Amino acid sequence: MLIEFKLKNFRSFKEEVSLLMTNVKSFQEHKETNLIHTKKGFDLLKSAAIYGMNGSGKTNLILAMMEMDRIVHDSFSDSLKKEGDNSYHTNTFRLSTETENANTFYEVSFLINDEIYRYGFEINGQIIMKEWLFRKLEREKNLFFRDEKSFKISKNSFEEGLKYKNEVNSNVLFISHLAQFNQKISRKIFNWFSNLNIIDGLVDKYDKTITKRLMEKDGNFKKWSSLVLNFLEITSIEAGELDGELVTYHNKYDTNNLLIDSVPFSVTKDESAGTRKLIYMLGPIYDTLKYGRVLFIDEFDSKLHTNLSKGLISLLHKFNENNAQIIFNGQDVNLLDKGLLRRDQIWFVSKDQFGASELYSLSEFNTKTVRNTSAYDKKYLENKFGAGDLWQLNKKLIELLYVE
Known about the structure:
Layout: E1 2-8, E2 17-20, E3 35-37, E4 43-45, E5 47-51, H1 58-78, E6 104-112, E7 115-124, E8 127-136, E9 140-147, E10 151-153, H2 174-179, H3 184-194, E11 196-200, H4 205-217, H5 219-228, E12 234-239, E13 246-253, E14 259-266, H6 267-270, H7 273-291, E15 294-298, H8 306-318, E16 325-329, E17 346-351, E18 357-361, H9 376-381, H10 395-401
Parallel strand pairs: 5-16, 5-17, 11-15, 15-16
Antiparallel strand pairs: 1-2, 1-6, 3-4, 6-7, 7-8, 8-9, 9-10, 12-13, 13-14, 17-18
Helix pairs in contact: 4-7
């Protein structure tokens, strides 16, 4: 379960920002449905919603998690490739001389059973500049720390690292290197990243692949997804004969409205864009709920009716037995609903005058600005939270439009 995600100097995020998934203890709303109760003295949020204007940096927050996950999984294999064949990307904040050549920082804190781990690294180009791992039982202990000049390993708590510390290259994460040799703690950290589902709500390639695979291999998913889709008059869904094809079935009636047949529809060719998106999202949602994963969705609500978006979020809140979490961004202000989300589940991204994104929570505002009974959507559109700047129309626009 995700506790906190931090990043710095990634794309539009110049300064360090933190997405915190712990609850505000004084908030009483939706305590029974929206929280994951732990034995560590805090509860975790089942979801977080991120809002802001177009271009504010909402997508970059999710891309940062995606990039951290990619580096963890690929740094070892990338180091074996020829120069130029690896998946190197430049992601620094490029609007400042202070940061354009500086390190990019990533850190996650998460809970596995009753153990809290805090893992992170700084990277510059392809070089790992710093890397660290902490574990907390009663109090936090540093398992290892490396930078360009030193490599410190706890002999008592991270013995697995002693054997391999002289073998890891500067462009390989130590955790990734150790995981290749099935070292116990490192494999646990590596597997946490494998427990992430990260999808783009505008591009369906990844979620379509998950849904197709589940449709072929998990009979229960086929029954579950067909039940979800009944409200769209879709009687069932299955994998087609062509690779990657999904087929839905709709009832056919005679002139007396008597059921006479079932007609197959190609999801890709015959279903609407919104129906396609819902179908492709069902795989990651099912997988996340069933196995207790963390799901990140960029542009969650695009192409979906408000009631459908609300229904999917409620599903993750109310029928979540394995402590799954969802972090999403969107534009549908109807989801900023006090009947759906707590104040500590709502986050905003805005840009300052220098083009840098800032991340902050609705929970940071005092009760003079917002209460648990407030209309969050109305206040957001009125720019009470600073992330919904109004577009100022002026006479100059008209003059330029109709200039002769």
